[in-house]
Write a structure and sequence with these properties.
By secondary structure, the chain is of the alpha/beta class. Helix content is 34%, strand content 18%. Strands 7-8-9-10-11-12-13-14 form an eight-stranded parallel β-barrel, surrounded by six helices. It has a four-stranded antiparallel β-sheet with strand order 2-3-1-4, covered by helices on one side. A two-stranded antiparallel ribbon has the order 5-6.
């Protein structure tokens, strides 16, 4: 349920509604937009049946919210959210480029990459210190040592940094170093991990699960926001279908669907979506055209030697060329890049 206040509703009227909701043992979620204030109700709405909110001073109308996700719902928060990540922001009018290696391998590899992607136009360095791999024999990441290297790269380049976490222990380590936590596709419905990420207070990048519906994805975001952490960015990275030409099938329609259902920013990861570097550039351009707030692109100094996802990683030269090609698309979309 949401209570939409009249444009001229004063603080007294708003506070009265909030107090009525809270006195019934429910949670009031206040969203003040440029023109109107919306009060969302979290909890058992039947407790408000005798409150006559429809005729309370300052109330325009009361609207039922049928979706199970509330806090990530655009009905609760009509204005697009802006999420601060270190010294940059993700949201409307801005095109955020997150770039870097799938896995942090050593200091030289990471530093070379950080300098190169910063020069080309990226504003966030991505790098995996904890790697949930399909095979237990694959490279699993440098863990906290990798986080320290990320922190060093941030100090040398000024880039904000994002790193995936896979456990409560990983979160405890990561919050000491990173500007943003990443919840990977395999952990999108690891609800205890989502709760811990929410409690951390650090911005969270939430990737869509391999076979998750959009509603399941938004409910996963709800777990984070329900812990008091509103700084969530969604990432479409392809879903599993019967098609084998690419690693996953990039659901480009997810961008406008999310924009209609949620106020949260959404970026697109064309690298993991395809698994093929030749497809990264055209899909990156398409993502901007659909309204994505940013991109996550894998870049490696020597992709053929990469310990993880080399076939989808761009070289420094390819990434610089892509960034140059993206500029007119960003301009057409009205985004700063």
């Amino acid at each position: 349920m949401i209570i939409i206040m009249k444009p001229n509703a004063d603080e007294t009227a708003i506070n009265h509604i909030v107090a009525t909701i809270e006195n019934k043992g429910l949670i009031a979620h206040l969203s003040k937009g440029a023109e109107v204030t919306i009060i969302g109700v979290i909890g058992d709405k039947t407790k408000l049946l005798d409150a006559n909110l429809e005729i309370a001073p300052g109330v325009d109308r009361v609207v039922a919210v049928t979706e199970s996700y509330k806090l990530s719902n655009r009905k609760f928060h009509p204005d697009n959210s802006i999420v601060s990540v270190g010294n940059t922001v993700v949201g409307p009018n801005n095109l955020t480029i997150m770039a870097g290696p799938c896995a942090i391998e050593n200091e030289e590899q990471l530093m070379q990459t950080a300098i190169a992607v910063k020069k080309a136009g990226a504003n966030v360095l991505r790098g995996g210190a904890y790697k949930p791999r399909t095979s237990p024999y694959s490279f699993q990441g440098l863990e906290e040592y990798g986080l320290k290297l990320m922190d060093q790269a941030r100090k040398e380049t000024g880039l904000s940094i994002v790193c995936e976490v896979t456990s409560h222990r990983a979160i405890e380590a990561a919050v000491k170093y990173v500007d943003m936590l990443q919840i990977g596709a395999r952990n999108m419905q690891n609800f205890e991990l989502l709760k811990e990420a929410g409690k951390s207070g650090v911005p969270v990048l939430l990737k869509r699960g391999i076979a998750a519906t959009i509603d399941e994805w938004l409910n996963a975001a709800e777990y984070i926001i329900a812990e008091g952490n509103n700084n969530v960015v969604l990432c479409e990275r392809g879903i599993r279908t019967y098609e084998t030409a690419t690693r996953n099938t990039l659901d480009m329609s997810a961008v406008p669907v999310i924009k209609s259902k949620s106020h949260l920013p959404i970026i697109v990861d064309p690298s993991h979506a395809t698994g093929v570097r030749d497809y990264v550039a055209p899909l990156a351009k398409g993502a901007i055209a659909t309204g994505a707030d940013g991109l996550m692109i894998e870049v490696h100094p020597c992709p053929e030697c990469a310990l993880s996802d080399g076939p989808q990683s761009l070289t420094f030269e390819q990434f610089e060329q892509l960034c140059n090609e993206l500029k007119p698309y960003a301009n057409l979309a009205g985004r700063i890049f």
